[in-house]
């Protein structure tokens, strides 16, 4: 379409415009992550594991699409996914089960960690507190715990046994350990046996506290509206 001056308007939306038009899916992401967490915790059946995998995949896709990252970030995400899918498929076909699980843990830790960074970048752009920003922040908190679940899985593969009492370091036990660490509830039945496990557990607890302080503080500060003289609020 041409304006009166004869110039042609570009119908392609800018990156900022795409963000403004992006649907609000953070609430759905939060629900899917929560359902996946609960289902994984209460059932070890094969159907539950498949359902949890599907829920996690859909959650990550929706989180990235809702955050509307830049083309460069989207390209990096696609590259990580392609490499991860190829590595996972190859490991499941050619490696022993224990080694294949380690490859899956490495892939999921990378993908979830990347998604967490994308979501947090979007949260920190919000200048007013909305349900969208709160759901995004809570989703990021769950993603942090999920990421460390798979990081601990890698440590368990590298330096077994992972737990001090010799308990099996399966996915459910590692998720329980990760979120117990994340919420700093205190250990009772499971503790890390190696210095690597202990160090990472301490690091996760530290990140969780920093996350709560910085994100919650950002949301509380934004409750009073946009800063004086700043650009209009990002929805």
From TrEMBL:
Keyword Transmembrane attributed: yes
Keywords: Membrane, Transmembrane, Transmembrane helix
Domain named Potassium channel: residues: 176-220
UniProt KW Chaperone keyword: no
Pfam short name (any one): Ion_trans_2
Membrane-traversing stretches: 21-40, 46-64, 76-95, 101-124, 136-158, 200-221
Alphabetical list of Gene3D superfamilies matching this protein: 1.10.287.70
Descriptive protein name: Potassium channel domain-containing protein
Organism in which the protein naturally occurs: Cellulomonas gelida
